[in-house]
């Protein structure tokens, strides 16, 4: 669908996406500091940590998939779901997510 041809649909999709993002702002924990002093220093510059949503976090996964569908419907970007059992060196974890400095073989 070309949203330029249907501004009402574009507005609706944008509002639904904002609702999903607002839910995440309210319902996600965020680390205030990372603990990584025992992590080996890589030979290249330190990478950015990646946040992974746990498969067991059903509500979070469901909302992320809804957000992905909305973004893709709007034609903004193609989003691929990545899964791994080896996220990397974990620097933060709660019931819903893991934040980790990736291993060399961690999907990105």
Largest pleated sheet: 3 strands, antiparallel
Strand content: 5-15%
Count of strand segments:
3
Treating each run of at least 4 consecutive H or I residues as one helix, how many helices? 2
Structural class: alpha+beta
Spatial extent as radius of gyration: 17 Å
What form results from the Cα inertia axes?
elongated
How would you state the average pLDDT, rounded?
Answer: 81
Low-confidence stretches: none
Strand numbers in spatial order across the main sheet: 1-3-2
Which bin fits the share of residues in helices?
25-40%
Terminal Cα span: 29 Å
| Topology as a string of helices (H) and strands (E) | HEHEE
Question: How would you portray this structure in words?
Answer:
The chain is α+β, with helices and mostly antiparallel strands and 108 residues long. Helices cover 34% and strands 13% of the residues. The chain has helices at 7-27, 58-73, and strands at 50-53, 89-93, 97-101. The protein has a three-stranded antiparallel β-sheet with strand order 1-3-2, with no helix packed on it.
Please write out the topology.
Blueprint: H1 7-27, E1 50-53, H2 58-73, E2 89-93, E3 97-101
Antiparallel strand pairs: 1-3, 2-3
What's the short version?
This protein is an alpha+beta fold and 108 residues long. 34% of the residues lie in helices and 13% in strands. It has helices at 7-27, 58-73, and strands at 50-53, 89-93, 97-101.
């Amino acid at each position: 669908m070309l949203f330029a041809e249907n501004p009402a649909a574009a507005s609706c999709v944008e509002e639904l996406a904002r609702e999903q993002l607002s839910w995440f702002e309210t319902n996600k924990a965020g680390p205030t500091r990372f603990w990584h002093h025992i992590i080996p220093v890589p030979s290249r510059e330190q990478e950015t940590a990646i946040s992974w949503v746990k498969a067991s976090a059903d509500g979070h996964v469901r909302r992320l998939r809804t957000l992905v569908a909305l973004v893709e419907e709007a034609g903004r970007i193609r989003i691929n779901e990545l899964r791994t059992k080896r996220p990397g060196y974990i620097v933060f974890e709660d019931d819903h997510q893991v934040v980790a400095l990736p291993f060399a073989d961690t999907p990105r």
